[in-house]
What does this fold into?
Amino acid sequence: MGPGLLAALSGNDAGGIATYSSAGASYGYKMLWMLPVMTVLLIVTQETAARCGCVTGKGLASLIRERFGVRRSVLAMAALLIANTAVTISEFAGIASGLALFGVPASISVPLVALLVWMLTMSGSFQRIEKILLLVSCVFVTYIVAAFMAGPNWGEVAVDLVVPNIQNDPSYVSLVVATIGTTIAPWMIFLAQNNVVDKNAGEDDIVLQRIDTVSGSIAADIIAGFIIITTGTVLFPAGIQISDAADAARALEPIAGQWSTVLFASGLVAASFLAACVLPGVTSSAICEAFGWERGADRSWDEAPVYRGIITAIIGISAVLVLMPGVDLFQIMMTSQVINGVLLPVVLVFQVVIAADRHIMGTNRNGRVWNVLTWATIGVITVLTVVMFVLQAMGYSA
It folds into this structure.
């Protein structure tokens, strides 16, 4: 247990929390119906990644190179590097804004957290890193506590969870797309498969890894649901609009009390820290694996200089950019969203072709039902991505 849970929860990062908070603040509970859809999409992609890792003992980047060639691998890895660096920058921005709510200035919080993230990723033991990050994930419980403190109408919550509510409003459609899109990112697929490989899980472990990925996906979307419930209960009736997760935490205090703000801000910091620890490592691991370079948390600088160098560069660049005055962090986040939107369907096509290949997967290849589900997931995400780009071109954004 661990890889699936960690990969799914890492997706509830600063951008995800901001999106879920905005969904609740703007439309109350009316977007809860998306959670079951999001969960199915996440389970399909994460289970496939874990199964491929168990059967082949290789990460997705290595399989893409072997199955599709070096040229396509170079394009995929370049896009992944750019997108993941941009997302890492947003995580440090989330850490800075979250700790600012506790009175810690960015000039102190960002360098210290960057150093802590670097030391953890360089600690030399995957098992130790995984245990620490799983412990950090426990802070997500703060969102559950915050939701109960807000005192929602649980009857309305139950109805809106199972009854779709679609509104003829471009802003609503844009937010639906963003909410589903923030649930699955290309790096999460690489992370899920790499973590399984790093744990040396084999074909005998497929059942346990399947339980892990399903439970992780459900847990991540439960957390997302409680974020929507909290802001939908407190901010929506008051007509308060927010632009990021820190805004949501600040807006809760005058209505729901100081402890709601503390809980929400604590969750933001922990979520951003978790993703900041994960993103550089999964990016470097994928690139090194794609080109045959040594990788792994247990490899020294002498053994894996490129692996550790890429991690160090991503962390350093992200921290410096967040501290630089005049840097348009919002534009960086939007750029990463565009790259991820284009890259995700491509990665999913790579994944489904590999997972259905008898020569690679043997008896554990995708069955007919799972192939249909995976191609349906690709179709849904592709359509949503196109809709998102169109709405952004029209001037609407989540």
